[in-house]
């Protein structure tokens, strides 16, 4: 692979990142288009240690330059980030490159932030592609502000490049398998005993479905945590399971934005502190499950979560823009207050709404004999029922609004016609429908924003 690769420029800085375990990422690069010299690599990040496949710095530079070739005539809106996916079979690598405009040394340049993986990791990486891209997009937003102000963008990009390397390494060893044996879950038990109370299991599964299948499971016993993780993953699609992670027995992983279900171990003091920013930036609201004390809490519904997420994101970028020096507000600092928005750091609430769908499922599934395939078949039928109800709800709303041409004003009729009078049932089906048609929550509940309390008052009036 070394033939035909230009020697590395001595100006290219390199950071070696210590990652526990085998990191499938070969390297990450930040490059820009120099109007005189063409594509230039500004920085290289590479995992430290023995890799199954090794790229020299010259080869990394060659591949990074490849992503910027042809971008000199790029025409895009201000602030746009283009995602490009290269599969270079002759080099045996895949490159995911985010192309954006930024200012370097007072001149506007076309830049590229890229990650390079072996082609053999394509099947492993694809389910995680959206997670990685969304996280890199946001760090680019902050990086463009840092570039505009003449600060060091490398320090900002490292804040996300390093965690993504750690994420990919952890998913390599602790990813939830695509096919889960029901024998490894709570649903295979003879009954709901002291290890998992019926009300706790019901509330955990119900809230998990209400928050679009996104949950955090924390506890002190890794076996118990992983059993609940596998149980919740039964209600996800095979692709979503590949974006879920079991907990590690010896030490806890960090919380990672974008995963559907992740198990996390408490520290020696019996606590685990969740990072506010990362939780708020998750694409969907999240359920918090503590298996030590059997508590279940959840974030507000999708439309409120998105509203808070975007307001906080604007506040964060605005605060970065107002800085007078790099030391004023580091790019990874939580913005506690702003002129127009003060986030509520206690984002998890008690599960307020009861349901009949999950309650009936739990009551009936444990009537079936364990150890056979009956419970797996019944689970598949239950998930099919929820999917069909979500499709029916979408069709109902399309007909009532003439495919979005009119506002939706008949929530009471929808609940009665589709037998979703219990708020928990409605939330579960709405969450399924949200994943099929993004933005449904915001459309149904109207443009005027309602907090959770106001929304409940409105729904009670129907």
TrEMBL record:
Gene Ontology molecular functions: guanyl-nucleotide exchange factor activity
Coiled coil: none
One GO term of the biological process aspect: thigmotaxis
InterPro entries per record: C9orf72
Pfam family, one: C9orf72-like
Record-level GO cellular component terms: autophagosome; endosome
Signal peptide start and end residues: none
Domain of life, per lineage: Eukaryota
Family matches, as PANTHER family: GUANINE NUCLEOTIDE EXCHANGE C9ORF72 (PTHR31855), GUANINE NUCLEOTIDE EXCHANGE FACTOR C9ORF72 (PTHR31855:SF2)
Name of this protein: C9orf72-SMCR8 complex subunit
């Amino acid at each position: 692979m070394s033939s035909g690769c230009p020697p590395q420029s001595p100006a290219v800085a390199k950071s070696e990142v210590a990652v526990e375990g085998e990191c499938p990422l070969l390297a990450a690069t930040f490059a820009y288009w120099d109007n005189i010299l063409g594509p230039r690599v500004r920085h290289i990040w590479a995992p430290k240690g023995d890799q199954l496949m090794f790229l020299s710095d010259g080869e990394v530079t060659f591949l990074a330059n490849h992503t910027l070739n042809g971008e000199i005539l790029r025409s895009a809106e201000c602030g746009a980030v283009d995602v490009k996916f290269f599969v270079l079979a002759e080099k045996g690598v895949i490159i995911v490159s985010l192309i954006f405009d930024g200012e370097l040394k007072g001149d506007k340049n076309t830049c590229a932030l890229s990650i390079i993986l072996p082609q053999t990791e394509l099947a492993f990486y694809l389910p995680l592609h959206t997670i990685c891209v969304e996280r890199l997009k946001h760090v680019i937003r902050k990086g463009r502000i840092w570039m505009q102000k003449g600060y060091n963008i490398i320090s900002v990009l490292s804040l996300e490049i390093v965690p993504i390397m750690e994420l990919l390494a952890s998913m390599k060893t602790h990813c939830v398998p695509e096919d889960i044996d029901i024998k490894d879950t709570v649903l295979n038990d003879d009954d709901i005993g002291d290890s998992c109370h019926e009300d706790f299991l019901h509330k955990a599964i119900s809230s998990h479905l209400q928050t679009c299948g996104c949950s955090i499971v924390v506890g002190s016993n890794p076996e118990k945590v992983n059993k609940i993780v596998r149980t919740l993953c039964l209600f996800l699609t095979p692709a979503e399971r590949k974006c879920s992670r079991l907990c590690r027995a010896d030490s806890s992983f960090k919380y990672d934005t974008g995963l559907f279900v992740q198990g996390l171990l408490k520290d020696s003091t019996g606590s685990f502190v969740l990072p506010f920013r990362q939780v708020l930036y998750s694409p969907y609201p999240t359920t918090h499950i503590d298996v030590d004390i059997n508590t279940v809490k959840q974030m507000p519904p999708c439309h409120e979560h998105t509203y808070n997420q975007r307001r906080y994101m604007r506040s964060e970028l605005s605060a970065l823009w107002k800085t007078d020096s790099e030391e004023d507000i580091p790019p990874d600092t939580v913005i506690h207050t702003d002129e127009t928005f003060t986030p509520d750091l206690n984002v998890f609430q008690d599960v307020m709404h009861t349901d009949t769908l999950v309650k009936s499922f739990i009551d009936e599934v444990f009537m079936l004999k364990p150890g056979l395939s009956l419970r797996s078949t019944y689970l598949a039928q239950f998930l099919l029922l929820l999917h069909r109800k979500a499709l029916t709800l979408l069709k109902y709303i399309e007909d009532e609004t003439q495919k979005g041409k009119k506002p939706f004003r008949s929530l009471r009729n929808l609940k009665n016609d589709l037998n979703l009078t219990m708020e928990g049932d409605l939330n579960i089906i709405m969450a399924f429908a949200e994943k099929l048609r993004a933005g449904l929550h915001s459309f149904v509940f109207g443009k005027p924003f309602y907090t959770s309390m106001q929304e409940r008052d409105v729904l009670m009036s129907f």
